[in-house]
Each structure stands twice: as structure tokens, then as C-alpha cells.
Amino acid sequence: MRLTERLRRALQQPVAAHAARPPWALGIAALGVLGLAAATGIVLGVGFDAARERALLAGSPPLPRALHAWAASALLAVVLVHVGRVAWTAAYRGPRARTWWLGLGAMAGLLALFWLGTTLRGDQQGFEAWRHGALLLALLGLGRGDAAAPTGLLFWLHVLAVPGLLAAAVASHVLRVRRLDLAPLDGTPQAARGDAQVPFQRHLVTGARLAALVGVAVAALAWLAPPALGPEPLPGIEAARAPWPFAWLVPLQDVLGTAGIVVGLVAVFGALSLLPWIDPRGPVAWRRRRGALVVLGVVAVLVLGLGLWALLGPAGVRVVGNGA
User: Which of 43, 171, 184, 312 makes the best surface tag, with the fewest CB within 10 Å?
Assistant: First the structure.
């Protein structure tokens, strides 16, 4: 069968009708924004020199750097909304549990990419990002907390190793979604019950439109508010705010030390991973899903509550030691 014929059949394959609604096309939109982040990252990565990363970043074309930074944030925001929609509609149930876990793995990969990109900035925020990561690795027995940032290794992890793992997780996730179709709106186990359907092309077009809207917003923000590099790093202090995806971990770290990062990540990803077992069947209505409501309430308090507290509170400067 010719490639064009396979493509035509794939686009015409019927899927659940609600796939054409924007909230159910956020996954496609995320893929589009991921493409923008990857393209701008390639521009920044060409000619990167680990020994002079700050000078190169400071001298790199400001628009690609701003586009990459805002695209990374927009990508995580779209993925978080997508995960929230899946959780809200109980689309993690039954045969889609593995799809849900693959999606959580992809989200963890995106967070790892965001952290790696921050460590490559070469400013105070980048230095502190590496320091927290090094302390975390030391806590897990994987290195020394006072080790200098291996910028070359971090670069290749950012542009090759982690993206490769992320691509595998995303591809597996997408293939399972295509095979199982979207979860039915009423929460019943099977979707194929004579429900209304639309061609997959409608789902794709809706997602592409959402991605285009996000892309326009990213371009506007990159033009009007390009994120600047911070000051040169001072190893003995912490003075930069954590990047917004990790801000919620700061209060936990203040109370529990580096172990607070582990506690926070395990609590959030562990709780979300348990949803298919806690809420395996039944109505989608929230008043009938108390277990899922408790889990998502805990996640909301940790991520949204602590995150807003850290981002909106005063930014202090503190002197730190190697093991703080």
C-alpha cells in the first residue's frame, strides 16, 4: 500500500465525536508546541560550547532564545491542562491505564528537560538548579553534592538522551490512544457502542488550531517579554527564584531539606499513578468519585498551593553550604 493511501486511511479512521472538541485535542496541541520547542532548541544548540555557554547564550539570537524559553513553558502548561482534563473525565480507567502511565512518564521527561535547560543558562538560576539537582543525586547515592556542573554532559542529556526517551514514551502513548480511541464521555468500559464518530482528521485539525494559538502567544511573549539571563552565579548564596514548574518544591525543601524534593515528586507522581486503581470504574460525576477527588485535591494543594506561595512570596537571599 502506498504511503499516501495509508495516510488517507489514517486521517479518515473514525474516532469518538468528542475528539473534535478542544479539551480532547490538547494532546495534539502539545505535540505541535513540542515541535516549536525542538526547532528553536536546535537553533540554540548549533555551535554550543560547554566552556563558554553563558557567553554563547548571551550572544545568541535573542528571538530564538526567547521563543525556546516561552515554548518550553507553554508546552508544560498545555501538558498540565491535558493531564487535568484526562483526570477530570476519568480517561485513565480500564484499558487506558497504561496510556495514563506513559503520559505521566512523558510529563516527567518534560520536567527533566526543563531542569536540564535551566542548568545550561550559566546564570544564578542555572547554577542553583544544578546545585539542587546535585544535592538530590547525592542523597540518592549518585555523586557529590558539591560537584561542579558537567555542562557538556548536561547538554547532551538535554539535546539527545532525554529527548530520545521522551520520544519513545510519547510515541507509545500516541499509538495506544490511536488503538483504543478516546475514553467515552459516560465512563463506560467500551467506546464502540454505536456512538457518534468523526474522522481522525477532525481531531488533528482541532489540535493543530490549538497549537497555532499557543504558538502565536509564544511568539508575542518572545517579542514583548524576552526572558533575560540572570547575573553571574555566586556559589555561596541562593538568590534566584526557582523556575515555575519547580516552585512548589521550594517550601518542601525549606522544611525537609533536599529530601523534600524527593517527597514532593514521589507524592505527586505516586498519587497520580494510583488513580487507575483508586478509581477503576463507575460514574464520571465527581460526587461519585471521592477517592479520585482526594488524590487530585492533594496534588492541587501541593503543586498549586505551594507553587503560588513560593512564586508570590518574597524572594529572599540566603547563604548556603555544600550540604544544605
Answer: 312
- Residue 14 scores a pLDDT above 90: no
CA-based torsion, 293, 296, 302, 303: positive or negative? negative
Determine the residue type at 167. A
Q: Give the C-alpha separation, 45 to 117, whole Å.
A: 11
All domains in the chain, ordered by first residue = 13-235 (1.20.810.10)
Residue that the C-alpha cell 538530590 belongs to = 136
Residue type, 158: H
End-to-end CA distance of the chain: 61
Helix locations, the chain, DSSP H: 3-12, 26-45, 53-59, 62-88, 97-119, 124-139, 151-156, 162-180, 200-224, 249-256, 259-273, 275-278, 290-300, 306-312
The reported pTM is 0.90
Packing angle, helices 290-300 and 259-273, rounded to 10: 150
Average pLDDT in the 86-96 region? 92
Please compute the mean of the pLDDT values over residues 75-96 and round it to a whole number: 94
Give the whole-angstrom CA distance, residue 83 versus residue 77: 10
Task: Give the C-alpha separation, 324 to 321, whole Å.
Answer: 5
Report the candidate in 74, 104, 85, 107 with the shortest Cα–Cα distance to residue 210.
74
CA separation (Å) from 122 to 14, 134, 251, 308? Answer: 49, 16, 24, 26
The SS3 assignment for 318 reads: strand
C-alpha cell at 12: 479518515
- Of the candidates 44, 45, 107, 41, the residue with the CA atom closest to the CA atom of residue 245: 107
Report the distance separating Cα 321 and Cα 237, nearest Å.
Answer: 8
For residues 77 and 178, give the distance between their C-alpha atoms in angstroms, rounded to a whole number: 23
Residue type at position 245: P
Q: What is d(CA 234, CA 217) in angstroms, rounded to the nearest whole number?
A: 34
- Report yes or no: 99 and 178 within 8 Å, Cβ to Cβ: no
